[in-house]
């Protein structure tokens, strides 16, 4: 009985302990269930937030597309206005030329008028002189006639003297008649000169009126052009803002993965998820019956072309022209295709790498932005790090490239966060052809060697730098950026 009692007491205590343990387990289960619910709610909210972000991103891309279309439309209107303005400028120049010709004609007419007026004054003086002479001659005739009468009455001179006096009188009358005809001719010439002067003044007034009308039209077009340029500037600012917002949503730092085809001596299998959230972003590797999964911002399979890879990073190249610092670099083991991705074969359009395509886009876009008042200056440099030694690939002589010591080139950082290498060759470039020749020259100076995966593999780290300096005198803007690849 005593043993049974002790066993019963031990069983009851064990049962109590188990009950307490069960209660604790239930409490722990309840707590874990609450945590699971909380995590599920959090996951649901995160999914909703992710959906809203994707929707917001789509809206921003749509707005960016609309703004791009608006900017294109405004650009077309601006080009039309510029063409119209150029035509009006040509017309204005022709009107100005006509006006100058009219002014010269007017000045000639004024000179002719002044000459005619002086001639008229001279003729009037001559007319007054002739009239005075006529009056004097008439007085002389009258005096002679009176003298003749007196002579006839008093002295009775001979008829010969009378005839001489009559001849003299006829000559004086003929002279007076000639002077009268000359006066009439001069009056006709004066009236013709006055008529020419009136016509010249009328033509000048019409030309001035047309010039003022063209001037007002030109001022109106210039005002409209200024408004259109301001709209384009505002649209460009909005485009930059939306562009940078989209890039920030995608991520200022993004990691892409490019898979090249497997070689004949390589084993393993590569696959890509075809469902779930990792479509286009994930890659799965099978090695020795073991599966490995990786996720990136973007995955390019072995069928992806150079154009496909560049399309994904082309927006970053646009950011360089907007004044931001951009860095694009490839990382991977020897023979993984870094040089092919970054440089490719510039001789063929479909095999060009990221660097040649980025430079082409930069120069093409900078040419388009010249119509908006932007002027760009670009400087290029290229170096490689070989055996922990910096080598200038754009040095003028091959000896200076091979004999370059690490102490000659020092990496420096200024107060603005810019990184520079001292004594590095910097070349001003103005076209894509100049940059292509620099890339060819640098490629010939690179250190290469044979590996098991590549007959001619790059044995160094290469860095190409393009510094961009932009100025817009219309908007009074200045930017400095760089792109490293």
UniProtKB/TrEMBL annotation:
Residues 8-133, 162-238 form a coiled coil. PROSITE patterns: KINESIN_MOTOR_2. GO terms for molecular function: ATP binding; microtubule binding; microtubule motor activity. It comes from the Eukaryota. GO terms for biological process: microtubule-based movement. ATP binds at residues 332-339. SUPFAM superfamilies: P-loop containing nucleoside triphosphate hydrolases, Tropomyosin. InterPro entries: Kinesin-like_fam, Kinesin_motor_dom, Kinesin_motor_dom_sf, P-loop_NTPase. Belongs to the TRAFAC class myosin-kinesin ATPase superfamily. Kinesin family. This is Kinesin motor domain-containing protein. It comes from Aegilops tauschii subsp. strangulata.
